[in-house]
């Protein structure tokens, strides 16, 4: 039996009401909107008796569906003066749902103006005086309540900020470990709860039955399939490993992470707060990653301990790191953790406080970078000193108190840690959302710095977020293609409730929630009260991207016109392939001059290495180009696994001489160097900014100079790929990728005769490189549908099987060489689908032992074939057949290795046994690992590497 619990604080009464049937498929944020529209006068005072404090569960909360346990809190906001919903993790929603409670409505306030706390358990509901808890901070309060009511209940509470009715007050919820670290933080809802005279709600579901599921079989299937999707997802795998701090490197690279009171989108010391740095620190100090609510497969919550291993906080999140860290010029992770804990104790929103302190620093009340003073000011908020009472009222009130008119807030609320100038779609969300400046209302990073198309992107993101918040699904558990969640939720809800929803219906749930919220805000005068945005985001350029927020007002005016019209695209997922104009065959190198001229080049930088110069091929090319009337300059300083420094030297030559195009002749290192020079001379700045894994793709803006690739090895396929693999010596020889469709060479001249001089060992190693691209690409489900790449992969394996042995034993066999050139080319297409464990092990092996890239992949490819054997049974069999007509891929590989002299064990390539465990740490930092067909644990990879030692 589903119910609403209504708590009347005026008379200290609680009663259950039937849950309206027409609201059956409305939960969380949507339910709050329905209740407010029905019961709360939109123009009421947020602290007055007419406003309500509402707690609402999600629609699948009591089940074991993953990531469906967010709990929404809502009411009219003190900050925005409009409708507000904020949600939090923790096991609360699960418990309420099992007790049949879909919402708690708290109304009125106690006549005696004292604080009370509510206990909900199987005996019923009691409203108890909270005098003994008055003024307590959240952790102490929870400890005292647990002494009284046991360890089992989940507790909703406010700290001193909520009791003082401060505008930045949050509502805390205990997590699975009983810590009050999960906060419904935004919009000042802690003050709304405080204004009801409510210090805490204790929820004990002991004895509550499991929720009813109409079709258990269908439900289990939907859950199982979705868990598999989540476990396969690369983005979520990164977040699982590093928590949301994984975003620090990416967003500071993209230039959207606020620094120094929103004067920059990137802080120079942000690297000290990056995800892998934090992850290492956390593990070293005995902290952990864990799920904040039961059943979550992402588990991104971080338990952060101090240097002595003592617990500080469990909610070490990107937003907090940015707002209390980089926005205040602070890069000490411990200082950020301590401030985070202070905020959790006092019960205040870290975003609002971080923004407020940024303005306080601008007003001379503290210095940027002074973590001690920042912490003192936060403490003053908790103590309610005069300064603290000003700061606790949020960024707008603080700016007004200090006569500052550059206020980083939209619709009364602090802007979160995604600067709207750098991510314009998110800016549109801040300006149009009924929630004010709130990243959880519709974050979008698609084509982030272009103003075109951002209205639709924001609208789709806002609908998605509203739908998720209404169902109770956690936004941090959305996979790379987030809209797939609609389908899962439709299936799960159909099974849970015995209904017949489609994915469009789930999307419409979001649209309906927004429509309700907009209606409330219209009646509340929300748009009349506020400017649309602060002027500075239009006028002040944001370094380093040098953008302003320039989406047209007229477009934003029309955003909601399509609210109930926009639909998600149907059908299979799309794919893209970028290919160069390709001319392949003996002696095609002689066409180089003609191709450069046809594509508009005049002054060529020839990029190569000294080995190629020694073979005479570079001079030959120079002659061909000169004969075509082109000017040339030779840059032959390329090194294997090209380091950034070499690229910078090449770029200097290009610029000094006045080149306008590049021709790379050589192996992958030469071609990659040329690609990176093209980026450096056209985009400028530090090449690390363009690291693909840090979102560098979005920063590369065409046009790039003409690039023609002439491979002389047959392995990497770099002549066809859109990426360049570079080495960062400053990051322990880390290999990183710069990628962009425009980096695909315009022309590939694939001349097998250029490869006859490759010695047998290198022929074998590069052949394994090509093979590994085909094998890992074919079996990778990272890109779910790409039949072109699949075809290239399978045929590439066939070419290797047919010709690698001959290319090694008879280097001058041009037919065999041609096959291998094509195998490499096919591998370049195949690997666009993704890679896997072999590349994840191979990259650190190169970094640690300086072995050739292809050689570094040989034994890891055997590991890959063994560990994924069951998962990829069919695909591996197909590839074994292509390779040598057998059925077993691992055995087929071993036979090939035996014939071409490739190693079968790690010891044969110089790996030390004692290095295996630390090496595996690096393996787990490789993005390729997360594309592996099978999800792996460190212990599996350690054992596997030992087996192959
Ligand atoms: P390489 O370019 O590093 O060259 C290795 C050696 O072979 C050099 O000494 C070179 O002088 C010599 N060499 C090249 N051609 C020769 C020839 N015809 N005759 C005699 N000697 C010759 O080797 P590679 O395997 O082609 O490239 C490896 C690099 O490519 C690595 O940095 C790897 O990370 C990268 N890579 C890039 C991609 C991509 O898509 N961009 C894919 C895989 C690997």
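Q: What amino acid sequence fits the structure above?
A:
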């Amino acid at each position: 039996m589903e119910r609403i619990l209504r708590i009347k604080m005026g008379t200290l009464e609680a009663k259950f009401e039937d849950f309206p049937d027409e609201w059956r498929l409305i939960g969380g944020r949507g339910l709050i909107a329905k209740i407010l529209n029905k019961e709360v006068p939109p123009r009421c005072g947020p602290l007055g008796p007419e406003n309500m404090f509402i707690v609402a569960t999600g629609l699948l909360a009591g089940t074991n569906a993953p990531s469906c346990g967010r709990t929404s809190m809502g009411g009219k906001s003190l900050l925005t003066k409009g409708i507000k919903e904020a949600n939090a993790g923790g096991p609360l929603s699960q418990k309420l749902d099992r007790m049949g409670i879909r919402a708690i409505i708290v109304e009125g306030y106690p006549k005696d103006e004292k604080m009370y706390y509510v206990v909900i358990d199987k005996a019923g509901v009691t409203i108890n005086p909270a005098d003994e808890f008055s003024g307590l901070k959240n952790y102490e309060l929870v400890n005292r309540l647990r002494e009284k009511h046991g360890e089992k209940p989940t507790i909703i509470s406010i700290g001193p900020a909520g009791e003082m009715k401060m505008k930045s007050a949050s509502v805390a919820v205990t997590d699975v470990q009983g810590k009050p670290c999960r906060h419904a933080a935004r919009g000042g809802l802690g003050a709304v709860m405080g204004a009801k005279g409510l210090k805490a709600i204790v929820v004990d579901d002991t004895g509550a039955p499991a929720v009813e599921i109409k079709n258990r079989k269908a439900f289990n299937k939907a859950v199982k399939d979705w868990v598999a999707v989540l476990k396969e997802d690369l983005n979520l795998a990164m977040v699982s490993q590093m928590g949301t701090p994984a975003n620090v490197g990416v967003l500071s690279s993209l230039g959207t992470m606020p620094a120094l009171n929103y004067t920059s989108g990137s802080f120079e010391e942000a690297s000290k707060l990056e995800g892998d740095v934090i992850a290492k620190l956390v593990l070293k100090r005995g902290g952990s990653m864990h799920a904040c609510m039961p059943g979550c497969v992402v588990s991104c919550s971080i338990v952060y301990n101090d240097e002595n291993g003592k617990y500080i906080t469990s909610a070490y999140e990107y937003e907090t790191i940015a707002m209390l860290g980089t926005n205040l010029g602070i890069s000490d992770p411990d200082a950020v953790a301590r401030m985070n804990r202070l905020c959790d104790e006092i019960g205040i929103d870290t975003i609002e406080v971080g923004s407020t302190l940024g303005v306080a620093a601008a007003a001379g009340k503290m210095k940027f970078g002074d973590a001690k003073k920042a912490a003192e000011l936060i403490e003053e908020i908790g103590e309610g000193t005069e300064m603290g009472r000003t700061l606790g009222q949020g960024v707008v009130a603080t700016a007004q108190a200090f006569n500052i008119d550059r206020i980083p807030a939209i619709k009364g609320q602090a802007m979160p840690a995604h600067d709207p100038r750098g991510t314009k779609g998110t800016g549109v969300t801040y300006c149009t959302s009924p929630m004010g400046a709130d990243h959880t209302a519709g974050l979008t990073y698609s084509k982030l710095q272009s103003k075109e198309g951002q209205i639709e992107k924001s609208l789709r993101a806002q609908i998605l977020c509203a739908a998720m918040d209404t169902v109770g699904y956690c936004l941090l558990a959305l996979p790379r293609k987030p809209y797939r969640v609609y389908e899962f939720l439709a299936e799960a809800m159909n099974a849970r409730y015995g209904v017949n929803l489609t994915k469009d219906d789930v999307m419409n749930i979001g649209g309906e929630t927004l429509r309700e919220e907009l209606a409330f805000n219209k009646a509340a005068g929300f748009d009349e009260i506020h400017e649309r945005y602060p002027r500075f985001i239009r006028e002040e350029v944001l370094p380093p991207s040098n953008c302003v927020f320039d989406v047209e007002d007229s477009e934003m005016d029309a955003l909601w016109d399509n609210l109930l019209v926009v639909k998600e695209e149907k059908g299979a997922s799309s794919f893209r392939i970028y290919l160069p104009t390709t001319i392949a065959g003996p002696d095609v190198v002689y066409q180089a001059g003609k191709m450069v001229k046809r594509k508009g080049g005049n002054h060529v930088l020839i990029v190569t290495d000294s080995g190629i110069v020694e073979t005479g091929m570079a001079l030959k090319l120079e002659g061909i180009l000169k004969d075509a009337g082109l000017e040339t300059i030779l840059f032959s300083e390329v090194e294997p696994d090209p380091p950034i420094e070499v690229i910078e030297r090449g770029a200097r030559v290009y610029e000094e001489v006045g080149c306008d195009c590049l021709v790379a002749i050589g192996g992958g290192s030469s071609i990659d160097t040329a690609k990176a020079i093209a980026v450096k001379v056209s985009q400028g700045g530090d090449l690390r900014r363009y690291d693909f894994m840090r979102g560098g793709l979005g920063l590369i803006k065409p046009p790039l100079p003409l690039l023609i690739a002439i491979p002389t090895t047959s392995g990497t396929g770099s002549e066809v790929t859109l990426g360049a693999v570079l080495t960062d010596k400053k990051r322990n020889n880390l290999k990183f990728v710069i990628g962009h469709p425009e980096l695909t060479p315009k022309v590939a001249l694939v001349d097998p005769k250029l490869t006859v001089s490759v010695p047998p060992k290198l022929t074998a190693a590069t052949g394994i490189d090509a093979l590994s691209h085909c094998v890992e690409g074919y079996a990778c489900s990272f890109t779910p549908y790409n039949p072109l790449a699949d075809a290239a992969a399978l045929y590439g394996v066939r070419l290797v099987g047919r010709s690698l042995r001959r290319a090694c034993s008879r280097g001058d066999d041009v037919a065999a060489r041609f096959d291998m050139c094509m195998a490499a080319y096919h591998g370049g297409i195949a690997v666009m689908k993704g890679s896997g464990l072999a590349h994840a092990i191979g990259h650190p092996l190169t970094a640690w032992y300086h072995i050739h890239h292809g050689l570094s992949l040989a034994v890891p490819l055997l590991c890959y074939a063994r560990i994924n054997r069951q998962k990829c049974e069919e695909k591996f069999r197909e590839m074994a057949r292509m390779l040598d007509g057998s059925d077993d891929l691992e055995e087929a590989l071993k036979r090939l290795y035996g014939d071409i002299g490739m190693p079968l064990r790690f010891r044969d390539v110089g790996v030390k046994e004692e290095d295996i465990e630390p090496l595996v740490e690096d393996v787990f930092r490789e993005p390729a690992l997360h594309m592996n067909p099978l999800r792996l644990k460190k212990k599996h990879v350690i054992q596997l590497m030992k087996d192959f030692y």
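Q: And what stands out in the fold?
A: The chain has a mean pLDDT of 95.
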